[in-house]
């Protein structure tokens, strides 16, 4: 056995001795809302990548991009260092002058919802655009379609929406509005990897979809994200923004992919200036490392099982909570939707004999993690308080969720024993009323 094989074998041994899941003790072991689910495959991939010492994107990144595109059914996947960066890259790509008359320019409007994670909205401001906020529907926590239709103005250039907690928004209706008004659509699919609409993966309907591989999400690289698209022009633009703004599209360590590296003439540069150092956009360096991608390659193989576990956990909770529908608005979803759930969202009804704060406090004391719907209403957040925007309505449902909504986890790390503990804790609280 060679040195490398010995290291890999010892790594598997280390996983068995140090990192396998610990036993669950009800009331003592914390039940998290999300987390990493992995085995020795991720660890050995990580070590093998480190032994290669190719520290930027390399063979594992290329493998992940290829296999992820195949899984999603898209032509292209561009890895980046986070889902938030994926959102920034996708929206920034729409500002490229290479898009001609469809270029999005400062002052143009992008329709979204206020009930979101901040980095769905932040790229709108970061690109000097104006967000137009629509309200959500209670139950789905996705955009109200009537408000979306009413939101379109002469300045509207795009729609940027997340599939909330893995629950697909009404894609048929959104696509109808997109096509009617010739708008761009970016699907923030960061919380919905594996979700489907009418049998097709979410994230693949719009012009671009974004993914996150943060430890809380469906698969993880630690940090990591991706932009997916079927549009070759958008692929090239996204890669440019990700890779310092370069016009060149060679992979790291490669030269002359275009076959005319010293035959370009762009801008005011002289003919023959090295294409690897011609910059067509004001870009970033948002690449992923190969060690992150190595973890992702192992995780991707487990994704179908992860999705099944999330759906099973969600179904178990939904069946349990049907008896308490007088106290809660339970999660709802569209007929064509097949969600890969990120969490189980509960909205306390006005007539309930307890408040959200009461039940959340009880759950946290019982060592069951809870979360709000991310920023709730971004307009009430300090970072967004003085920013320009347009709102279609008073956002009443959004504010209702801020005051009365919370969610608990359904991720694969919550096994049957932990799931039973969760419902037992809810029963203990609810039988008091």
What general outline do the C-alpha atoms trace?
flat
Q: Radius of gyration over alpha carbons?
A: 23 Å
Beta-sheet strand percentage? 5-15%
Distance between the termini: 65 Å
The count of helical stretches stands at: 12
What does this structure look like?
This protein is 37% helix and 13% strand. It has 433 residues and is of the alpha/beta class. The protein has a single domain (1-245, 280-433), classed as Type I PLP-dependent aspartate aminotransferase-like (Major domain) (Aspartate Aminotransferase, domain 2, 3-Layer(aba) Sandwich). The strands form three sheets. Strands 1-9-8-5-4-2-3-13 form an eight-stranded mixed beta sheet, with helices on both faces. A three-stranded antiparallel beta sheet has the order 7-6-11, with no helix packed on it. It has a three-stranded antiparallel beta sheet with strand order 10-12-14. β2, α5 (118-126) and β3 form a beta-alpha-beta unit. α1 (3-19) packs antiparallel against α2, α4 packs parallel to α5 and α4 (83-93) crosses α8. The chain is flat, with a radius of gyration of 23 Å. The relative contact order is 0.16.
């Amino acid at each position: 056995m060679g040195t490398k094989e010995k290291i890999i074998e010892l790594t598997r041994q280390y996983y068995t001795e140090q990192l396998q899941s610990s036993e669950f003790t009800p009331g003592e072991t914390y039940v998290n809302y999300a987390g990493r689910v992995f085995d020795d495959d991720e660890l050995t991939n990580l070590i093998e990548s480190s032994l290669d010492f190719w520290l930027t994107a390399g063979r594992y990144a290329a493998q992940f991009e290829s296999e992820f595109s195949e899984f999603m059914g898209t032509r292209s996947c561009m890895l980046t260092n986070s889902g938030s960066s994926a959102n920034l890259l996708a929206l920034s790509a729409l500002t490229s002058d290479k898009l001609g008359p469809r270029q999005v320019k400062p002052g143009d409007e992008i329709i979204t919802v206020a009930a979101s994670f901040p980095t769905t909205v932040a790229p709108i401001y970061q690109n000097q655009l104006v967000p137009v906020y629509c309200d959500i529907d209670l139950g789905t926590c996705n955009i109200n379609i009537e408000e979306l239709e009413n939101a379109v103005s002469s300045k509207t250039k795009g729609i940027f929406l997340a599939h909330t907690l893995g629950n697909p928004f009404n894609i048929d209706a959104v696509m109808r509005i997109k096509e009617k008004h010739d708008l761009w659509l970016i699907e923030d699919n960061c919380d919905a990897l594996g979700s489907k609409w009418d049998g097709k993966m979410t994230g693949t309907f719009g012009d671009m979809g974004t993914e996150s591989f943060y430890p809380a999400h469906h698969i993880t690289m630690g940090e990591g994200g991706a932009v997916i698209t079927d549009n070759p022009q958008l692929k090239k633009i996204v890669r440019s923004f990700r890779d310092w703004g370069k016009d060149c599209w060679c992979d790291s360590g490669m030269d002359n992919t275009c076959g005319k590296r010293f035959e370009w003439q762009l801008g005011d540069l002289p003919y023959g200036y090295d294409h690897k150092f011609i910059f067509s956009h004001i870009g970033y360096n948002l690449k992923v490392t190969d060690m992150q991608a190595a973890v992702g390659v192992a995780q991707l193989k487990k994704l179908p099982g992860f999705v099944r576990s999330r759906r099973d956990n969600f179904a178990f909770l939904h069946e349990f909570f049907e008896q308490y529908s007088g106290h809660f608005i339970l999660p709802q979803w569209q007929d064509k939707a097949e969600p890969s759930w990120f969490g189980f969202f509960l909205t306390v009804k006005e007539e309930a004999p307890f408040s959200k704060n009461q039940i959340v406090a009880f759950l946290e004391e019982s060592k069951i993690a809870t979360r709000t719907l991310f920023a709730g209403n971004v307009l009430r957040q300090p970072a967004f308080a003085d920013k320009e925007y347009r709102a279609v309505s008073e956002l009443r449902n959004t504010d209702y969720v801020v005051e009365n909504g919370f969610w608990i986890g359904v991720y694969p790390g919550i096994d049957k024993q932990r799931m039973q503990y969760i419902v037992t804790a809810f029963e203990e609280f609810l039988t008091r009323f």
